[in-house]
Amino acid sequence: MKTMTTDELINLLDANEDLNIIDVREDHEVENGMIPGAVHIPLGSIPEEAPNLDKSKEYILVCKGGVRSANAAEYLEAQGFEVVNLEGGMMSYDGELEFK
Fold first, then answer.
1. pLDDT, tens digit, 9 for 90 and up, residues 21-49
2. Which of 19, 61, 66, 87 is deepest in the core (most CB within 10 A)?
3. Which residue intervals define the domain Rhodanese in the entry (predicted)?
4. Residue 63 annotated to the active site
5. What mean pLDDT do residues 61-88 have?
6. Burial status of residue 42 (CB atoms within 10 A of its CB: 0-12, 13-18, 19 or more)
7. 100, part of any domain
8. Residue 65 — φ and ψ, nearest 5°?
9. Residue numbers of the domain that contains 63
């Protein structure tokens, strides 16, 4: 499984790269802010939402500390998706936040 540091992600965001970020945290966690442009799909909903994702795109997965997103990444990778796990998750991320 590929991984990415939060610094690498922030650099991509600053460069206005077209990113596909999935936040797998629970509803009460995302209320504290999400990475701009991220889509919220709680970990438990990943299997039912996977058919709605595009296998031609790479997805960056994020959670609070990196463990749940690694689980989601393993699942999606097994389904044929290109995925990257954000190391350290939101606990390591110190970039801009978006509130939904």
1. 999 999 999 999 999 999 999 999 999 99
2. 61
3. 15-99
4. yes
5. 98
6. middle
7. no
8. -125, -5
9. 2-92
Residue 12 lies in a domain: yes
What does the pLDDT read at residue 100? 79
- How confident is the model at residue 94, as a pLDDT? 95
The residues facing 58 across adjacent strands are 82
- Tokens in use for 62? 């994020």
Q: What is the pLDDT of residues 6-22, one digit of tens each?
A: 999 999 999 999 999 99
Burial grade of 80 (CB within 10 A; 0-12, 13-18, 19 or more): exposed
Rounded to whole angstroms, the Cα distance separating 73 from 13 reads 20
User: What is the domain-level CATH number for residue 88?
Assistant: 3.40.250.10
Q: What is the DSSP string of 1-13?
A: -EEE-HHHHHHHH
Which one from 22, 61, 63, 76 is the annotated catalytic residue? 63
